Amino acid sequence: MPYPYGGGDIIYAVDINAIYEASVDRPACILQQTVSQSIPDNTTTAITFTTETLDTHGFHSTSSNTTRITPTVAGWYRFHGVVWAPSLGTYATVVAGISKNGTTQTSPERHATPPTSGSFTDTVGGTYSANGTTDYFELTMLQDNTANSAQNTLVSGSNACYFECVFERGL
Question: Which fold has domain 28-169?
Answer without folding.
Answer: Jelly Rolls (2.60.120)
